[in-house]
Write a structure and sequence with these properties.
Blueprint lengths: L1 H16 L9 E2 L2 E2 L4 H10 L4 H6 L2 E4 L6 H14 L3 E4 L4 H14 L5 E4 L18 H4 L8 H16 L4 E2 L24 H16 L4 E7 L15 E2 L3 H8 L1 H9 L3 E4 L3 E2 L13 H10 L5 E4 L5 H4 L6 H9 L4 E2 L4 H14 L1 H21 L13 H18 L1 H12 L5 E8 L2 E9 L16 E2 L4 H15 L9 H4 L13 H5 L18 H10 L12 H15 L3 H10 L8 E2 L16 E2 L3 E2 L7 H5 L9 E3 L1 H12 L3 E2 L2 E2 L3 H7 L16 E2 L19 E5 L3 E6 L4 E7 L10 H4 L2 H14 L1
Parallel strand pairs: 3-4, 3-12, 4-5, 5-6, 6-7, 7-9, 8-10, 9-11
Antiparallel strand pairs: 1-2, 13-14, 13-25, 15-19, 16-19, 17-18, 20-21, 22-23, 23-24, 24-25
Helix pairs in contact: 2-15, 4-5, 7-8, 7-16, 8-10, 13-14, 14-15, 16-28, 17-28, 18-22, 18-23
């Protein structure tokens, strides 16, 4: 009775906690016994395997090239006959490999571990798939762009998974410390142990996110050799201390990060084992890798058909030594029957070797349970064309991020005191591919550095990041028409020479309005400034004249129609719903402090301008105006533009109609020689290297520049957004070296060259 009570309580606790799911078959006669599905599966497979088949499970064999269907059937029968654990493809095409993999798996009594050696993508082995640049190219990335390597590993893993590949023998995490190395070189991420480790982690974790085993190689470090282990046994003469602190450092880091596999090289490491190659050394595999570094994953030998082993160990002796050393996978044995025979004979004579066979066989089956068994029913297929575009995008992002021309252009501008610092951000195909901060907020050794959170005075970018968007919204709401007379919404224009100008004309800077006037010298009252604009003299024709006045009037139109000031209207309709917490007018009144904000001019009347709008007319209007006054950072400006590039949507939310976006970003007065769209600037009709936008930008592109040293540009033809923010007016607005040196457009030109090449 007491035992039934205890059992019932135990069942109640388990059911309530929800930690375990058990059924009646999982109870022993003495109470609860938890059954591990993984262990159950391994036990069940082990019970079906003979000693010879358990030995064979440790082996991964090379798939011969150019097999006919008849030869493939024979090879599959041979593999299954021995009970080999896995196969490795080294060349051919994906079109051919896919049916071969299907056949091999179909015939296998125990699912095969399918492997490939695709360090820089499957195209390294399969000529109809994509090849990434080698690791050395990715090694040039700055730390803030390491995610590109993760994305590469992720995409390689995704393609492996679709093709039924479970293990990729990558990444290489050897440190390229010997320029005479004939076998590593550009396969390495570089010469710095920290960067090699970090980029190796990114690659491995990206690949393993697709449940494809990554294999760090070549342990304990193949970087400082001058011989090729495919041909002979390289010698490592480093001290044990050096090996510990340098050569094995990347492996230690990857092990800590959770890499699933490690490949052991064929090296003569005298300080660790003067007698045996590293791949066959119990001191190096069992002692250093397993015990000291604590690696619990799958240990794979480098190819046992390489002369670094076969020159000394033949007739199956290399495979036996590798097993005794502590390896799980015996990769590419040159003579499979002989290797099986030698290990089987040794196991029959020696119980400890028999135990090793069983131990490592279980470890191989454990890997199969994780990486193979869940996918045995999945369709194996050639990766589709969409994968090629993903790969190309990754390479594009790589090219932009390793192009040191951008750094050189910016650094030359800072050195010439064209600006103290800046933010540069690029989005391509909806992803941030470049996001860098340069220099400081001001000049001097104690100046604070620019950060991604630094707010900049956007100056005339306000015209498109606030006023134009607000008018677009009102058009969407059918509260204003582009052909409306502006005086319909601003009664104080009636009876003036501006009574008949249209909203469309004002947006395109062809309403005849004056470009600018120092209205702040006459009044500091917002309404008075607007009346001064209303009373200003209109130009005699409607030719293109870039005008601040028109956007000051448009902002007032927004307020008259909506009943909200421009800043409130934009916050409620765009900035707050989009999560743009750093995009604001009057930042000092909205919980920002001066140190958050890049200073602008040291003015004789206003002192150092910081946190209030630089433009004096906008300042006289209280800091909220249609032509200037907005503050933000590069990321949030880019998100506003991404919404437009998406046709008015962002993150599943619609802010504007697609038709409205297209209307506003198109020209309407082209026949009159006006390049402008509605609010937005456009490419010159005849692009020039010295134009306001680089010559490579398409005619469909649009954007704007700002007096304080800002620029945004969007190009739908290449799905590109470019944002440049600086405070070039600090401490003085003249001379304008930023424009004279063509800094913004030269950077933009580099970006186009990286994306379009």
């Amino acid at each position: 009775m007491r035992r039934k009570y205890i059992l019932a309580v135990g069942m109640l606790v388990i059911a309530t906690c929800g930690f375990l799911q058990v059924d009646a078959q999982r109870f022993s006669s003495r109470g609860l016994t938890f059954r591990n599905p993984e262990t159950d599966w391994i036990d069940s497979v082990m019970s079906t395997l003979t000693l010879e088949q358990r030995v064979a499970q440790l082996m991964v064999v090379r798939v011969p090239l150019n097999l006919t269907d008849k030869q493939l059937r024979a090879f599959s029968e041979e593999v299954n006959g021995y009970g080999v654990g896995g196969v490795c493809f080294f060349a051919g095409t994906a079109e051919r490999q896919v049916p071969m993999t299907r056949r091999l798996q179909k015939d296998a009594s125990v699912p095969l571990l399918v492997c490939i050696d695709g360090e820089w993508g499957l195209g390294m082995r399969l000529k109809d798939l994509f090849s990434f640049p080698k690791n050395a190219a990715f090694g040039q990335l700055r730390p803030d762009a390491d995610s590109i390597v993760y994305r590469m590993g992720e995409e390689i893993g995704r393609q492996c998974r679709e093709m039924g590949i479970h293990v990729n023998f990558a990444p290489v995490v050897d440190i390229n410390s010997n320029p005479k190395n004939p076998v590593i070189g550009t396969r390495s991420f570089g010469t710095d142990r920290e960067r090699v480790a970090q980029l190796g982690i990114m690659y491995a974790l990206g690949q393993q996110s697709q449940n494809v085993l990554a294999t760090a190689k070549h342990f304990p470090g193949h970087g400082d050799t001058d011989k090729d282990s495919h041909l002979e046994l390289p010698v490592i003469n480093h001290t044990a201390a050096y090996i510990d602190s340098v050569d094995t450092y990347p492996f230690r880091r990857l092990i800590q990060a959770g890499v699933g596999g490690v490949m052991v090289a064929h090296l003569q490491v005298k300080a660790l084992d003067p007698e045996r190659p590293s791949s066959l050394s119990p001191r190096i595999v069992g002692g250093l890798l397993r015990q000291k570094l604590g690696f619990e994953g799958l240990v794979v030998t480098d190819g046992l058909d390489m002369k670094g082993v076969t020159n000394t160990y033949g007739e199956g002796q290399g495979e036996l030594a590798a097993l005794i050393a502590g390896n799980d996978i015996l990769l590419l044995p040159p003579d499979v029957p002989k290797a099986i025979e030698v290990i089987k004979t040794a196991a029959e004579k020696n119980d400890s070797i028999r135990s090793l066979v069983d131990y490592h066989c279980r470890r191989v089956l454990k890997a199969k349970y994780t990486y193979v068994r869940p996918y045995v029913k999945d369709d194996i297929r050639v990766p589709g064309k969409e994968h090629e575009q993903v790969c190309k995008d990754i390479v594009t992002d790589l090219n932009i991020n390793i192009d040191n021309r951008i750094d050189s252009i910016v650094n030359s501008a800072i050195a010439a005191k064209a600006m103290p610092g800046c933010q540069v951000l690029v989005m391509h195909r909806g992803r941030v591919v470049l996001d860098r901060c340069y220099g400081s907020l001001s000049y001097g050794d104690s100046a604070a550095p620019v950060t991604k959170e630094t707010l900049y005075d956007l100056a005339s970018l306000t015209k498109v990041t606030a006023t134009t968007l607000a008018v677009m919204k009102l058009v969407d709401q059918n509260k204003v028409g582009l052909n409306d007379k502006l005086s319909r919404h601003l009664p104080y224009l009636k009876g003036t020479d501006k009574e008949r100008i249209t909203v469309k004309q004002v947006l395109s800077h062809c309403a005849g309005l004056k470009a600018y006037d120092a209205l702040w010298q006459q009044t500091s009252n917002r309404d008075s400034i607007l009346l001064l604009i209303a009373g200003s003299k209109l130009n005699p024709d409607n030719s293109y004249v870039y005008s601040d006045f028109g956007f000051m009037l448009l902002a007032d139109m927004v307020e008259h129609i909506s009943g909200q000031s421009l800043d409130t209207f934009m916050a409620e309709n765009f900035y707050e719903p989009m999560g743009l917490l750093s995009t604001t007018f009057q930042p000092l009144d909205n919980n920002f402090i001066p140190s958050d904000i890049a200073p602008t001019e040291q003015d004789s009347l206003r002192g150092l301008i910081r946190g209030v709008v630089h433009d004096p007319n906008a300042a006289a209007m209280g800091g909220v105006s249609g032509h200037a006054g907005l503050f933000s950072n590069a990321r949030e400006v880019a998100l506003l533009m991404q919404m437009l590039l998406n046709g008015g949507q962002l993150d599943g939310e619609r802010y504007l109609r697609e038709k409205t976006v297209k209307t506003f970003t198109s020209r309407h007065f082209e026949r009159q020689g006006n390049r402008r769209a509605l609010g937005f600037d456009k490419q010159l009709f005849n692009p020039s290297k010295n134009g306001q936008v680089c010559a490579e930008a398409s005619q469909n592109s649009y954007g704007h520049t700002g007096f304080t040293g800002t620029m945004l540009w969007v190009d739908p033809d290449v799905d590109l957004i470019y944002v440049f923010l600086s405070n070039r007016v600090h401490p003085s607005a003249s001379p304008n070296k930023l424009a004279q040196m063509n800094i913004r457009t030269d950077i933009q030109s580099c970006i186009y060259n990286d994306i379009c090449k």
